[in-house]
Amino acid sequence: MESALYEWFMCNQEHVNISGELLKEKGSIFLKELYPEANSFECSNGWLEKFKQRHAIKSFRRFGESGSVDMEKIESILPSIREELDKWAWKDIYNMDETGLFYRMQADTLL
Fold it and tell me: Contact, 50 vs 6, CB < 8 A?
């Protein structure tokens, strides 16, 4: 079961954000398909951690847009942004990110 799960992981890690919960779920599916009589095994968090250790799977964060930022452009435009913000009182400035807009997107943190 673990070799099938690891093979699936290796084939899909570039295309799908694979979380620990997804690995546990897929492990349960493979277990039921390969060993229908094994019903007492549960893919627990402890099993997941050992599985990741056995196969040298590390957690990492995928960088999408944030990895492609041109820092020189940011530094050149920063003074004009500060100038615009100086026109407003601190209580009127709200800092937000895309979390509220993209709450249904796949996670970018893996394992």
Answer: no
Q: Please, are residues 5 and 51 in contact by the beta-carbon 8 Å criterion?
A: yes
Q: Which domain holds residue 68?
A: 1-111
Q: What is the pTM of this model?
A: 0.54
Model pLDDT for residues 37-76, shown as the tens digit of each residue: 877 778 889 999 999 999 988 876 555 555 556 778 888 9
DSSP letter, residue 106: P
Angle 2-12/45-54 helices, nearest 10 degrees?
A: 70
Q: How many residues does the chain have?
A: 111
Number of domains in the chain: 1
